[in-house]
Design goal:
Blueprint: E1 5-8, E2 11-14, E3 20-24, H1 32-45, E4 49-53, H2 58-72, E5 79-82, H3 87-93, E6 99-102, H4 111-128, E7 131-137, H5 143-149, H6 153-169, E8 175-180, H7 184-201, E9 208-209, H8 217-232, E10 239-240, H9 251-262, E11 270-276, E12 279-286, H10 289-305, E13 311-320, E14 323-326, H11 332-343, E15 352-355, H12 366-377, E16 384-388, H13 394-397, E17 403-409, E18 412-417, E19 420-427, H14 431-440
Parallel strand pairs: 3-4, 3-10, 4-5, 5-6, 6-7, 7-8, 9-10, 12-13, 15-16, 16-17
Antiparallel strand pairs: 1-2, 11-12, 13-14, 17-18, 18-19
Bound molecules: iron/sulfur cluster.
Length: about 450
C-alpha cells in the first residue's frame, strides 16, 4: 500500500520503501552508560531505529545525553522517545529526538486536554523536524473510546483516526500509526480497518506493525511472524518491531527476516505443498530450526488467521550442527503445528502467555520471572496469564488476560484477576505460589 513518506532522522518510513526494522531499549534511561552500550549493540546488529522510554521530565536530559554520546561515537541511528502518561514530557523531549511515540489512551487523563496537548506537541515537532508515532494498544484504549465502541479492533482503528485527523487538520504529515495487540486476530483486524479508513480519507500514513507482549522463545517469534506477516503480505506495514521478552538485540534478526522476505530478498524454504481438504501438508528443507519456524509462520499464519486452512502438518528436514534432522521423527513438526495453531488462535494446547518486553520502567528480573511462571503453569490449560514489567503501565496493557503477575519493584509483586488486583506487595519469592493457588482454586 502506497503511504506518505515519513523522515525519521534520515530513515524513510513508508512510500513503498523496504520495511524498517526497529527495537527498544530495556535499560533504565537514567543509566546513560548502560543505555548507550545497549544502543551500540542494537545498531551493530542492524537496528535502523531505536526507542527509549522517557517516563518523566527528568529523563529528557538523559535521552539527550544518550543521543549525544551515540552521535559522538559515530552512531547515527534515530532515537524515539516512548511516552506514557505525561504529555508535558512529550512536548519537552520532542526537540531532542527524531520521533516521539505517544499512546492516545494515556496521553492525558482528560480527553479535551489530550487534544490540546497534542496540538502543542505537533507545533513543537513541526518546528524541530520531529516525527510522531500515534501508538495505540488494545489494552489501554482509554474509557473515552471504549465507552463509544467497546474494547474492539474497530475501536482501535476509530481511536487512531481521531488523532490522525488532528494531524491532517494541522497539516502535519510526519506521522506513523500503530495499533498493537497481543491477540493476533485483533491486531490484524485493527490494522486492516485502519488501512481502509485512511484510504477512504485520502491520507494514508505509514504503519508501524507488531504484536505487543508476544512473549519469548519460539512462541514469541511465531506469534510475531503470524501477525506481522499477515499484514506485510497485504502491503500493510512500513516498519516493524518484533517484541520479545529477551535481550532486545534478539528482536533484530527476526525483524530483518520479515523485512527481507517482503522485499523479495529471501524466500521460504518450503519445497512442496499439498492440500487435503483444509489441511496443508508442507515439506521443508531448511538451513536451521529457527529458519523453518519463521518460514512456516509466514507461509501459513495468514491462512490460519483467515480460516482458509484448519490444520498444517510438517515434513522434511532442517540442519543442526551439520546434521540433517527429520521434522517428523524429531517431533518438531507436531510441536510447530501446535504452536502455529495457538499463535493464530485456532487451537490452544497450553496456557496463553502475554509478557511485555520490559523497558526502562521495569524494576525487577522480568525475564527470569516469566520463565518461572511458564515453568510452573505449563500444566494448566484454558487460561491466559500475563507477566508485566511495571505497575504503572502493566495492568492497563494486560488486555484480555485472566491472571496478571505484575512486578512492583523492590522484590514485590501484584497479582491481578482480570483487571482487578487481588494481592498486592507479595514477596517475589512467594508470588508464583500465590498465583498458582489462586488459579487452581478458582
Ligand atoms: S508494561 Fe512493560 S514495556 Fe510497557 S512500560 Fe511497563 S515495563 Fe515497559
Amino acid at each position: 500500500m502506497k503511504t506518505l513518506e515519513v523522515d525519521c532522522g534520515g530513515v524513510i518510513i513508508g512510500g513503498g520503501r523496504p520495511v524498517v526494522v526497529q527495537t527498544m531499549c530495556n535499560t533504565h534511561t537514567y543509566d546513560v552508560d548502560a543505555t548507550v552500550a545497549q544502543c551500540m549493540r542494537m545498531a551493530q546488529a542492524g537496528a535502523e531505529i531505536i526507542r527509549i522510554t522517557v517516563p518523566g521530565p527528568r529523563e529528557v536530559a538523559d535521552i539527550a545525553a544518550v543521543r549525544r554520546r551515540l552521535r559522538d561515537a559515530g552512531v547515527g541511528t534515530p532515537l524515539v522517545a516512548d511516552i506514557h502518561f505525561s504529555s508535558e514530557t512529550a512536548i519537552a523531549v520532542a526537540p531532542v529526538v527524531e520521533k516521539v511515540r505517544i499512546n492516545p489512551g494515556n496521553f492525558h487523563r482528560d480527553h479535551e486536554q489530550a487534544r490540546l496537548q497534542f496540538a502543542r506537541l505537533i507545533e513543537v515537532c513541526k518546528a524541530h523536524g520531529t516525527a510522531i508515532r500515534i501508538g495505540l494498544n488494545h489494552g489501554s484504549l482509554g474509557d473515552y473510546i471504549t465507552n463509544l465502541y467497546g474494547n474492539t479492533s474497530y475501536a482501535m482503528a476509530k481511536a487512531a483516526m481521531e488523532w490522525v485527523g488532528m494531524c491532517v487538520d494541522a497539516d502535519f504529515r510526519q506521522v506513523v500509526v500503530s495499533l498493537k495487540s497481543s491477540n493476533t486476530l485483533v491486531m490484524v483486524d485493527a490494522y486492516r480497518q485502519l488501512a481502509s479508513m485512511m484510504q477512504e480519507n485520502g491520507v494514508v500514513f505509514p504503519m508501524h506493525v507488531g504484536v505487543t507482549e508476544a512473549g519469548n522463545g519460539d512462541s514469541g517469534r511465531i506469534k510475531s511472524c503470524v501477525g506481522i506477516s499477515a499484514l506485510l503480505s497485504e502491503g500493510i506495514g512500513d516498519t516493524v518491531r518484533v517484541s520479545l521478552t529477551e535481550d532486545p538485540v534478539n528482536e533484530i534478526p527476526v525483524g530483518r527476516y520479515l523485512s527481507d522476505r517482503y522485499a523479495g530478498l529471501t524466500a521460504s524454504t518450503m519445497v512442496r505443498l499439498r492440500l487435503e481438504g483444509r489441511t496443508a501438508l508442507a515439506e521443508y528443507s531448511s538451513p536451521s530450526r529457527e529458519r523453518l519456524l519463521l518460514d512456516a509462520s509466514c507461509d501459513f499464519g495468514k491462512r490460519l488467521l483467515d480460516k482458509e486452512l484448519d490444520e498444517v502438518r510438517f515434513t522434511g528436514t532442517y540442519m543442526e550442527d551439520g546434521h540433517e534432522v527429520s521434522v517428523e521423527e524429531s517431533g518438531f513438526g507436531t510441536y510447530l503445528s501446535d504452536e502455529l495453531m495457538q499463535a493464530a488462535r485456532r487451537r490452544f494446547y497450553k496456557p496463553e502467555y502475554i509478557a511485555c518486553p520490559g523497558c526502562g520502567r521495569t524494576m525487577y528480573d522480568l525475564q527470569g520471572a516469566f520463565e518461572e511462571v511458564k515453568r510452573r503453569t505449563a500444566h494448566l490449560s484454558d487460561v491466559v496469564i500475563a507477566v508485566m514489567g511495571c505497575i504503572v503501565n502493566g495492568p492497563g496493557e494486560m488486555a484480555d488476560a485472566d491472571w496478571g503477575y505484575v512486578g512492583e519493584g523492590n522484590h514485590k509483586v501484584s497479582i491481578y484477576h482480570g483487571k482487578d488486583p487481588v494481592l498486592r506487595h507479595v514477596p517475589d519469592t512467594e508470588a508464583v505460589d500465590r498465583l498458582l493457588e489462586l488459579i487452581e482454586g478458582r
